[in-house]
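Escalation from tier 1.

The customer reports that the assembly of two entities below gives different structure tokens on two consecutive runs. Tier 1 could not reproduce it. I'm attaching the input and our single run for tier 2 to review.
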Amino acid sequence: MGIDANLKATGVADVIVILEPDAAIPAAALGSEVPAAIAQHFKASPYSQDAALLETLQARTFVRRLDSEDLAVSEAYGLARQAPVGSRYYPNLGVALGSVDRPALAALRREPAVQKVVMAPQLRLIRPVATAATAAMPGYTWGLRALGIDGLHDQGLTGRGVRIGHLDTGIDASHPALADVLHDYAEFDLLGNRAVGASPRDSAEHGTHTAGTLAAQPIDGIRFGVAPGARLVSAMVIEHGNVLARILGGMNWMVGQNVRVLSMSLGLVGVEDTFLAISQILRARGVLPVFAVGNDGPGRSRYPGNYAEALSVGAADSNSQVPDFSSSQLFKRAQDAIVPDLVGPGVDVVSCVPGGGYKQMSGTSMATPHIAGLAALLMEAKPDASIDAIEAAIFGSCALPPDMLASRANRGFPNAAKALSLL
Amino acid sequence: MATRRTGNKPDNTASAHAGLIDAVVFLRPLAGAAAPSPELTDATATAVLSQAVTATGLQPEATTVFSHLHAFSVRAPQTFLDALEASEEVAQVQSNDLGSTPLI
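Tier 1 run:
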């Protein structure tokens, strides 16, 4: 996303300021202090407001995408990997990093010492999700209990008759917990054509884990599937890099399979409108898009989860805290200015993995199928309810625990019984 | 106005090395909240592709229409994609390569 698009969406943009080679920088500026002529234009960045969060983020590994041919910018990108800060100066490179609003951007570009201003890298956390092999324990997982899913199961609601779309890395349908949950499975070529004869499989663990949270059957009293009576329409869509046509191929196929909710734990950093019209069409066709907001921390989010048209899901832990990896962002728009819309269980989530085992994983990817599964339970209970009504009931059931900030969790954590009562 | 996003960035396909680009074409939405019918999408995609063939004298190597989503994918030379983008019926032409894995 470019500077203009970022300013339009959020009001601020992280930029790299490249100074003129012969710019006269006072000796006092040598070091990491941003020259005053530049610093006066920088605004507070979300990253600079929480020292503890900064330390946590800095301890992690980031990857970057190099879009620039400029060596100095490239080297700054490398430095930025180590320090996602509000502002910083690299005198040996002649560049500074900082956040600007639109007036500040214009002022910076007028500064004689400034050669050009370019968009700063959009940092991507590499798999911030923690994973750990685990022995699944009998009973409901903490996430299902916290949402009150056990109460809806007690009323006989399991998602029966509801098809859930599941776009991910695939699914190991031979896992005992997933033996009967698959309605159909598909893979797609690079232009979005359905591959002939594809058998269910998972190219990683991600898809099987999210599928388990959506609809796993109880086995030996182990219960981590939110909607075990629902059936999954599952597609592998994200291998080999060129994914847009395959994701659309999967969505298109799922609409034809009459899914009522689409759970998608995928997204890209920024606010491109690539999936905007598609998200609007999904809603118009009666499909509720439930998308993960991302694992990039505060001040960042991923599309399509950050569209107002999506039900976007962040993560919470068992202590009603929003983990620092869970994305959140404030947008300049009248509708749904804060993303995510709500948070769901996304830390130490137990579900199934290929090969018959179980793992704990953490991430907004894990929170998303909890909410999509809840939507399926409500759709079974009220089959004539529109997706807008289902979404409104889930939103209306949310509450913010005392220590949970609205800026991080928006409406807060849903309650299944209350959501049902609102329909 | 259409947003041009196709570029010449090569895809990891054999066709990319032959000068062909994989892209997705988003057709212009209907006014209001209604979703276009699959039949309308099929007809519009066919018409838009036909116009581009006439304008360029080129044929796309392959296309896939997403009837439920008012969009289609195409593998074709840049010139052909430029002609598609110029169509009044086209809202956006987007590279099939989103730049990184979307796995969260």
